[in-house]
């Protein structure tokens, strides 16, 4: 039984479990301790953000969640710190001369191979300090604790902490803090999926980024053990050079068709078909691409330079129908083959703020073409996580510890306490595996100019909005002793 269910059930029923969490010295083990006062935001009571008299029971969420590719990738547990993934890269040319006589030696040759590797990242987040004997406080009888959240806090990224009852986070401080940790953890890991770079790791190992897809879908692949070049594993990388996705200087249909044809042909020539591929891009880029794709795709190379020599009649209704079908089904036709499209709002995006090639209102991003499975439905793009369940035999020797794992061993929770104060810590070690980088590709620097940019999930992004308060002021009270 997943221990998350046990802990959350106890938290919802009564505060006895909270007392247990903070009253032990954890078998004599030494820990850093939380603050001596509560720093976690109050939900109810005098300072509570929902302690307002007459507040309606339903609370609407305006929190923008991340979403994207990670939600469709399979996740596998692992305990291998430094794995190797083999690839047979080819057979050498003939070595030696043709035999002069029937029994002379004939030319020989060698089979060649390369190994790829993968690295775990490591990300940890803490809750704020919680004071146990403040959790039950209410301002007065009109301070109700039956609030119901309408909406979701955790996103659709594949990195969410499952099993947390989000509807109860407005009534239980501990659960609210756990979900806050989960939200911040998910944001960070969803970034790492694309832009993770081990060059950003802390020397002590407390924070590590796994190599993201921007590094793995790349040229310059090498053998993991000898650093020998492995060009047959290189991805197909193209540069759209900041041209507009619906412009005429460079044709997006030509680029995406060429990339798909090259990779599809390579999969066929190497015996990998059938392959399940997906196109992945930023949501704003997909919206602009679909606006012009039907017209561009249906008229590709059918016009001549001389006006009047070639006439193309376009039915506006058919174009709109094709556009709406693409948007509704989240699919795109390339070279006569239909592919699923994934939009990801954590995929890195350039603007005039961070790139001088762009004007205000212009954005640029990358379009990815990624393989999910190859012949035999063998997965080649997936997530792995360090399986904390495998430490259970050792942890049982540390009697009194309140550590627990959740989500099949993906997340590790620890508790620090000082008398009546405690906080929770969350840790995970994950990585993304791309076994066939040669069957993946990308088109960089595709420019688009939407009429309006979508809201963004990250607080440091330019189109993120929130507002509100995290602590309310005390009301003025009157008494003979004041």
- Provide the gyration radius in Å: 28 Å
| N-to-C order of helices and strands | HHEEEEEEEHHEHEHHEEEEEEHEEEEE
Structure summary, number of beta strands:
20
Number of separate structural domains: 2
- How would the global form be characterised? globular
Description:
The protein has helices spanning 3-13, 16-23, 173-195, 213-216, 252-269, 283-298, 316-329, 392-395; strands spanning 58-60, 75-78, 84-91, 111-117, 123-126, 130-131, 148-150, 236-239, 276-281, 331-334, 337-343, 350-351, 363-374, 378-379, 381-386, 404-406, 411-418, 421-428, 430-434, 441-448. Strands 8, 9, 10, 11, 12, 13, 14 and 20 form an 8-stranded mixed β-sheet that branches. Strands 5, 6, 16, 17 and 18 form a 5-stranded antiparallel β-sheet that branches. The protein has a 3-stranded mixed β-sheet with strand order 2-15-19, with no helix packed on it. The protein contains 8 helices and 20 strands. It has 2 domains: 3-76 and 119-211 and 383-432, no CATH class; 228-302 and 313-382 and 434-448, no CATH class. 20% of the residues lie in helices and 22% in strands. It is of the alpha+beta class and 482 residues long.
Give the helix/strand layout:
Layout: H1 3-13, H2 16-23, E1 58-60, E2 75-78, E3 84-91, E4 111-117, E5 123-126, E6 130-131, E7 148-150, H3 173-195, H4 213-216, E8 236-239, H5 252-269, E9 276-281, H6 283-298, H7 316-329, E10 331-334, E11 337-343, E12 350-351, E13 363-374, E14 378-379, E15 381-386, H8 392-395, E16 404-406, E17 411-418, E18 421-428, E19 430-434, E20 441-448
Parallel strand pairs: 1-7, 2-15, 8-20, 9-11
Antiparallel strand pairs: 3-4, 5-18, 6-18, 9-13, 10-11, 12-13, 13-14, 13-20, 15-19, 16-17, 17-18
């Amino acid at each position: 039984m997943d221990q998350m269910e046990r802990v959350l059930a106890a938290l919802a029923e009564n505060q006895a479990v909270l007392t247990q969490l903070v009253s032990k010295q954890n078998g004599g083990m030494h820990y850093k301790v939380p603050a001596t006062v509560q720093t976690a935001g109050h939900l109810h009571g005098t300072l509570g953000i929902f302690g307002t008299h007459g507040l309606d029971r339903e609370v609407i969420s305006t929190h923008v969640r991340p979403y994207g590719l990670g939600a469709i990738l399979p996740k596998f547990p692992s305990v291998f710190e430094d794995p190797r993934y083999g690839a047979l890269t080819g057979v050498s040319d003939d070595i030696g001369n043709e035999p002069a006589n029937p029994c002379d030696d004939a030319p020989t040759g060698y089979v060649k191979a390369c190994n790829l590797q993968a690295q775990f990242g490591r990300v940890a987040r803490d809750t704020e300090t919680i004071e146990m004997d403040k959790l039950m406080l209410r301002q007065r009888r009109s301070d109700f604790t039956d609030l119901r959240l309408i909406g979701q806090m955790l996103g659709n990224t594949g990195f969410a902490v499952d099993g947390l009852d989000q509807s109860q986070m407005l009534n239980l401080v501990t659960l609210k803090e756990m979900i806050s940790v989960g939200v911040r953890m998910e944001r960070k890991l969803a970034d790492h999926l694309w832009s993770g770079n081990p060059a950003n790791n802390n020397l002590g190992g407390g924070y590590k980024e796994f190599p993201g897809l921007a590094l793995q879908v790349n040229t310059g692949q090498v053998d993991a053990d000898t650093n020998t070049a492995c060009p047959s594993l290189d991805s197909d990388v193209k540069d759209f050079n900041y041209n507009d996705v619906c412009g005429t200087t460079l044709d997006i249909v030509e680029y995406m068709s060429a990339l798909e044809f090259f990779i599809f042909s390579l999969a066929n020539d190497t015996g990998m078909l059938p392959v399940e591929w997906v196109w992945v891009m930023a949501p704003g880029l997909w919206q602009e691409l679909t606006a012009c794709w039907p017209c561009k795709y249906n008229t590709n190379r059918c016009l001549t330079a001389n006006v009047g020599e070639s006439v193309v009649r376009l039915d506006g209704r058919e174009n709109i129908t094709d556009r709406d079908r693409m948007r509704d089904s989240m699919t795109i036709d390339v070279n006569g083959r239909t592919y699923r499209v994934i939009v990801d709002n954590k995929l890195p995006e350039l603007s005039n703020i961070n790139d001088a090639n762009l004007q205000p209102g212009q954005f640029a991003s990358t379009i990815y073409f990624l393989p999910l499975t190859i012949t035999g439905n063998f997965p080649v793009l997936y997530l792995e996580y360090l399986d904390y369940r495998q430490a259970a035999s050792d942890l049982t020797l540390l009697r009194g510890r309140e550590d627990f794992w959740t989500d099949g061993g993906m997340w590790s929770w620890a508790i620090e306490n000082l008398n009546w104060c405690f906080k929770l810590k969350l840790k995970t070690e994950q990585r993304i595996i791309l076994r066939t980088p040669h069957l993946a590709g990308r088109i960089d620097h595709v420019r688009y100019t939407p009429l309006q940019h979508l809201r963004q999930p990250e607080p440091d992004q330019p189109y993120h909005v929130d507002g509100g308060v995290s602590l309310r002021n005390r009301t003025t009270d009157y008494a003979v002793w004041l």
